[in-house]
Structure formats: C-alpha cells, structure tokens
Design a protein that fits this description.
Elements (H helix, E strand, L loop, with lengths): L2 E4 L4 E3 L3 E5 L3 E4 L4 E4 L4 E6 L2 E4 L4 E4 L2 E4 L5 E4 L2 E5 L2 E4 L8 E5 L2 E5 L3 E4 L6 E5 L2 E4 L3 E4 L3 E4 L3 E4 L4 E11 L4 E3 L3 E11 L9 E4 L1
Parallel strand pairs: 1-4, 2-5, 3-6, 4-7, 5-8, 6-9, 7-10, 8-11, 9-12, 10-13, 11-14, 12-15, 13-16, 14-17, 15-18, 16-19, 17-20, 18-21, 19-21, 20-22, 21-23, 23-24
Length: 203
C-alpha cells in the first residue's frame, strides 16, 4: 500500500498472471525504465498509481488490464506504446484509468494501440506531447482533453477516435501530416484551433 521506487534500468513486468493491488504506487525516478509486456491479464492494475518522473521511461508492448480501484498513470517522462498494445478490460470486474501526460507519449510500431474498452474507460489529460509515429492510436473509451498539448501524427499514421470523446482547446498544437479519423465517439476542436497539413475523416 506504500510506494515502490525504481531507480535503475532494465526493470521488467511480464507473464500471464500478474497483479498490482493495494492502492499503492510505483514511482520511476530519472534514469529508470520499466518494460511491461504481459499477455491476457498479465499486467493488471487494481487500485494502483504509476508515476513516471522526468528522465524516466516506461514501455508497454502487451496488455494492461484495468480492475476496480483508483488506477492512475502520471507521466512526466516518456511513455511508449509499442506495436499492438492495449489498455482495457477483458477479464473479471471492470476498472478505469486516469492517464495524465505532462511529458511525452509515443505510439511506435505498425500495430494498433487500443486505449480503453467498452467497460473500462481511460480518461486522458494531455498538456505534454503525444506522438503517433507509426500505426494507429485508437482512443476507444473515455473522456480526453488537450490543453496546450501537442499532437504529432507522422505521415501514414492515424489518431483514431473509436468511441471516446476528446476536446482540443485553442492552445493545442498539431504537427506533421497524418490522419485524424472518427469511427465512433466525438472529437471537438475549439474555433481557434489551427490544423495544418492534417487529414480529417469520419463522422
């Protein structure tokens, strides 16, 4: 129920049946990194906070299961989603996640990131930078906001609203030449938002 502080490199959490429970937190200080690559319910948050300090990094290349409790990721460092990864719920009781980004979030690899699921919303607050470098960043469920944040979508990459609702305020910054698409859910741009060289598609 306390705080576990990681200070070194090459920390990993993998496997098929791993749970973080107890309403405590895991904190990565500058220079530390953590790789999450669980499958099924291998990386399960059940009332946990993951704090990524400036200079620290976390990579998620598998599935993060959300169980009941106050689940939070506070990212002030670098959070990378690699290839086909997922944060959601598919086993047992449902949970939710608050994802607060003041640092950098990267989507790498050609697969699709599924952020949230039908019964497990992810509420995203971005005041930092979100880079969709490859593949698709699919925001499936939750409520998001960008206040002064940057959304950078590389050519050939896609930021998809697949059921969530997100609002970009007038100070939001958009760069590069990728696509924003809505297959479900809503995306709201304040009137003063400038969208240079970005393709919009969907309803």
């Amino acid at each position: 129920t306390g705080t576990l502080t990681l200070t070194g490199a090459n920390n990993t959490w993998s496997g098929a049946n791993g749970f973080w429970t107890g309403n405590g937190s895991v904190r990565l200080t500058s220079g530390a990194n953590l790789s999450l690559s669980g499958t099924g319910n291998g990386n399960t948050f059940a009332g946990r906070t993951l704090q990524i300090d400036p200079g620290a990094s976390v990579s998620i290349s598998g599935r993060l299961e959300l169980d009941p409790g106050t689940n939070v990721i506070n990212n002030a460092g670098v959070l990378t989603f690699a290839n086909a990864s997922e944060i959601g719920q598919g086993y047992g009781n449902t949970g939710s996640l608050s994802l607060v980004n003041t640092g950098t979030i990267n989507k790498n690899g050609t697969g699709t990131l599924q952020l949230g699921s039908t019964y497990a919303p992810v509420n995203l607050s971005n005041t930092g930078t979100l880079n969709v470098l490859q593949g698709t960043f699919n925001y499936v469920s939750g409520t998001g906001s960008s206040t002064g944040g940057t959304l950078s979508i590389a050519s050939g990459a896609t930021f998809q609203i697949g059921g969530a609702a997100i609002t970009f305020d007038p100070t939001s910054i958009f760069t590069q030449t990728g696509t924003i698409t809505t297959s479900a859910g809503t995306v709201t741009f304040s009137p003063e938002v400038n969208l240079p060289a970005i393709s919009l598609s969907g309803g």
